[in-house]
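$ run holo --ligand "heme C" --emit C-alpha cells
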Amino acid sequence: MYKWVMATIVSFAGLLAVILLLTGLPEKTEFPLQDHDFIVPEYAVDAEASMQIYKSRCISCHAADLKGGGGPALEHIGSVLTKEQIYKLVSNGRGRMPAFKERLSEEEIITITTWLSSLQ
Ligand code: HEC
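-- output --
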C-alpha cells in the first residue's frame, strides 16, 4: 500500500517537472525578429547560393553587374548599410523595393544579406 502511495507521488512529481520544463522554456524567436534584440546570425559568405537567389529575385531591378537600374546599385552596399539594415530592407521592402519575407526563407534572406554585406 505504502509503495503505491510513493509511486503515485513520484509520478506526479515527474509530471509536474515536465510541465514546468515545457512552460518554462523561453519563447521561440519569431520571424521577423523584433527591432530591439535584432542581430543577423553569423553565416559564412556563400557567394554561389547568393547569386542563385540574386539571379531569380533581384537581378531585374538591381542588374547583373549590381550597378542598379530599377533599384539602386548594390556593388558597395556593405559599406553603406549594416547587415541588420540590409536584412530588414530585404525582409520588409521599402518604397518600390518589394518585401521578401513571404517569398524567401529566413535562411535565404540571411544568406543573401551576408553576401551583400561583404560587398564593400
Ligand atoms: C521590383 C524591383 C526590385 C527588386 C525585384 C528588388 N529590389 Fe532592392 N530595391 C529596389 C528599389 C526601388 C530600392 C530603393 C528603395 C527605396 O525607395 O528606398 C531598392 C533598394 C534595395 C537595397 C538598399 C539599397 C540602398 O542603397 O539603400 C538593397 C540592399 C536591396 N534593394 C536589395 C535587394 C535584394 C537582395 C533583392 C532580391 C532579393 C532586391 N533588392 C530585389 C527595387 C527592387
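-- notes --
Residues 57-58, 60-62, 70-72, 74, 77, 80-81, 86, 89-90, 94-98, 100, 112, 116 surround heme C (CB under 6 Å).
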